[in-house]
Design brief:
The complex is a heterodimer.
Chain A (H helix, E strand, L loop, with lengths): L1 H20 L15 H7 L3 H15 L1 H10 L5 H25 L7 E6 L6 H9 L3 E8 L1 H13 L1 H9 L4 E5 L5 H11 L6 E6 L7 H14 L2 E9 L9 H13 L27 E8 H8 L2 H10 L5 H8 L2 E9 L1
Parallel strand pairs in A: 1-2, 1-4, 2-3, 4-5
Antiparallel strand pairs in A: 5-7, 6-7
Helix pairs in contact in A: 1-3, 1-4, 1-5, 3-4, 3-7, 7-8
Chain B lengths: L1 H10 L6 H16 L4 E4 L3 E4 L6 H10 L8 E3 L10 H14 L4 E3 L7 H7 L1 H9 L3 H10 L5 E4 L3 E3 L11 H5 L12 H7 L1 E2 L6 E2 L6 E3 L1 H11 L3 E4 L8 E4 L4 E4 L13 E6 L5 E6 L25
Parallel strand pairs in B: 1-5, 2-3, 3-4, 6-10, 7-9, 10-12
Antiparallel strand pairs in B: 2-13, 5-6, 8-9, 11-12, 13-14
The chains are: A alpha/beta, B alpha/beta.
């Protein structure tokens, strides 16, 4: 099971490379409504260089994974590239909004934890943008995933230079989120429980059992005094006529033996946040949850939507809507 | 007869030689060439929406609606792309067309073009199945000869997408030189690309081609052409069909569980001699081979979920 879950990192990385190749990412100026457009522009300025460099070094390090990603990248459907763009933008705009709104003082330091980070290169993007404001940035994933990432990062001149530059801030941890005791021990050893911490789970909780994901969330929220959780996941759908989730669960089990234990449990925007509603004195500030169709209609400007549609002749608007209304972005800030 | 053998192979999803495809395409071009841009069709007739390479669902469609031996059909286009059996689905339809020319009308959809099939799967399917693009080219030549619409009993206008600001009368559609790749704008493009919606007037389409039109445009078209219904496909409808504008327009969708993941049902619309409308709803089936074993669709080469 562990290996099957790890393999989803190749899908995620291939999706992102594709979205970069086809010029969905980075977004163009004035892509997003509100005040964070400039911040996103600077966050994404090197995204293409970083990812392409990682990919080239992967070729020498692990032919197998490289070959798989190479194959996945061939002729992607427009709906997939569009969705990868939305997923990436939704996560980063949630993080940037939190930093801008909750930590407005430039001297306020904060930490970031990227659970199940896989090949994600956000650590570079954020460290380059926020530099010394980030006291620690942790990537935590299974042992094999971290080992491969370490090798690639050291092999690439560009990436190695950046890792060295942020040597005191960037930490890669091998672990298993199911083992909450060890995970917490690792986090406590490396982080300060009293300063604001940003936790990211991008398609991570969906692979965990209900109990394991609940334990992880509860422990984190009870131990870290102030923070925000940014989570992106699929939801199965709660309408009795909606079969998207049932079919998705079945397709993934049949095609790759991949299970999503809570897809049909936390199946809607109203119950997906349940795990963060802790029944204690936790002063949970707010829970904001939107599906990706809400996100595109509310946050992506008409001009940017037009650009995205023109990149590959996006035809199937109805299919895009069905898919994107089954993926959610949640962000919840707390302050004990 | 050769064509019966080909039909039997196609139904089983078996390989058809490049030469056989070439011969079929040539014959069907000759046949389609003689058809008008807007074909006349008589009732009773069954109207079918998008198929998108879902061969096993196309077989179910024939099964549930009487079959081509007994029933007349109008297919509204989008035979290819997205599903794993675009070639087999399209060839099966043109075999039927050759065998029963008066019983099946094939209208061109926006996916029956060179440009769109390169993005949405048909081109890749041919490369995977033949190792070269010849068969794709033969099929694209046939696409150029498909008609743009049909008219049932002078009362129901059939088209893939919808209306065009450049078209007031069906007569004007007859004047189009259709034997070409679908242009990026103009009447021919709009007929294949436009969508109905609750809009006051002609609006730009979010699809990047065609227009969005509303009740006013539909009423105007129905009145001018003295027809009572526009039957079109082009948009996924979770319930299989959707009537709009006081029944003046209907969308019919015939690809159940679209892309093997959308979870929708499909529909076909039968028009009786008295023009009564009867919808048949059907669901996706797990593809099975001749002896009832489940067929796992050809290994997917493309990503289809965000993981």
């Amino acid at each position: 099971m562990e290996r099957i879950i790890q393999q989803t990192d190749s899908d995620a990385f291939a999706s992102k490379l594709c979205a970069i190749n086809y010029k969905y990412l980075p977004p163009t100026p004035c892509a997003i409504t509100g005040t964070i457009d400039d911040d996103l522009q600077s966050l994404y300025q090197n995204i293409a260089t970083l990812h392409i460099d990682y990919y080239h070094n992967l070729k020498e390090e692990n032919r197998n994974v490289y070959g798989k990603i190479n194959k996945l990248m061939r002729n992607p459907f427009p709906v997939m590239n569009y969705g990868t763009y939305l997923r990436t933008m939704a996560i980063d705009s949630s993080i940037i909004n939190y930093i801008n709104n909750e930590l407005p003082l430039k001297e306020t330091k904060f930490q970031i934890v990227n659970f199940g980070s896989g090949s994600d290169l956000r650590f570079i993007q954020y460290l380059e943008k926020f530099n010394k404001r980030i006291s620690k940035f942790i990537d935590l994933d299974f042992k094999d995933a971290i080992n491969l990432k370490k090798k690639i990062l050291s092999k690439s001149n560009l990436l190695n230079q950046l890792v060295t530059k942020y040597n005191d801030q960037f930490i890669m941890l091998e672990g298993d989120l199911k083992d909450i005791t060890t995970t917490m021990k690792q986090l406590v050893q490396n982080l300060d429980l009293t300063i604001p911490t940003i936790f990211i789970t991008e398609c991570v909780l969906c692979y965990m059992t209900q109990i394991d994901s609940q334990n992880l969330i509860t422990k984190i929220m009870n131990n870290f005094q102030k923070g925000v959780w940014v989570s992106y996941d699929p939801i199965g759908g709660s309408n009795p006529n909606d079969k998207f989730g049932i079919i998705m669960k079945r397709n993934l089990l049949e095609s790759r033996n991949l299970d999503m234990p809570t897809l049909l449990i936390y199946n809607s925007k109203s119950n997906y946040p349940d795990r963060w509603n802790l029944d204690n004195n936790n002063n949970s500030a707010s829970i904001d949850i939107r599906d990706m169709w809400d996100f595109v209609s509310q946050s992506i400007t008409d001009k940017e939507q037009k650009r995205l549609r023109s990149l590959q002749f996006l035809d199937e608007i109805e299919e895009l809507k069905i898919m994107q209304s089954h993926y959610v972005i949640l962000n919840t800030a707390w302050n004990i | 007869m050769q064509i019966d053998r080909t039909i039997s192979l196609l139904k089983q999803g078996k390989h058809i030689t490049e030469d056989a495809v070439y011969a079929l395409c040539l014959k069907s071009q000759e046949l389609l060439m003689t058809e008008a841009n807007v074909t006349h069709v008589d009732t009773p007739v069954t109207i079918c929406g998008d198929i998108h390479g879902q061969l096993h669902d196309l077989l179910t469609l024939f099964d549930k609606s009487g079959g081509v031996e007994k029933t007349r059909y109008v297919f509204l286009g989008d035979f290819v792309d997205r599903g794993f059996y675009s070639l087999e689905s399209f060839l099966l339809l043109i075999c039927y067309k050759l065998k029963y020319p008066d019983r099946i009308t094939l209208i061109r959809g926006n996916h029956e073009t060179r440009q769109i099939t390169k993005v949405y799967g048909f081109y890749d399917e041919i490369m995977r199945k033949y190792g070269n693009s010849n068969v794709w080219r033969y099929c694209c030549e046939v696409f150029d000869y498909l008609s743009l619409g049909a008219i049932i009993n002078n009362n129901i206008f059939c088209v893939h997408g919808g209306l065009s600001p450049d078209v007031n009368t069906i007569e004007e559609i007859r004047a189009i030189d259709r034997k070409q790749e679908v242009p990026h704008e103009g009447a021919m493009c709009d007929l294949l690309w436009s969508d109905p919606d609750d809009v006051e007037k002609w609006s730009l389409s979010p699809r990047g081609a065609g227009f969005v039109f509303g009740q006013n445009e539909v009423n105007q078209f129905l009145h001018t052409n003295k027809v009572e219904l526009i039957a079109r496909a082009h948009q996924l409808v979770m319930e299989g069909y959707k009537e709009m504008f006081d029944g003046g327009l209907v969308t019919v969708w015939s690809a159940p569980n679209y892309c093997y993941r959308c979870g929708n049902v499909a529909a076909v619309l039968r028009i009786e001699d008295d023009l009564q409308r009867n919808y048949t709803i059907f669901d996706a089936v797990q593809p099975q081979d001749g002896v009832g074993n489940a067929i796992i669709p050809t290994k997917k080469s493309q990503m289809d979920y965000f993981l």
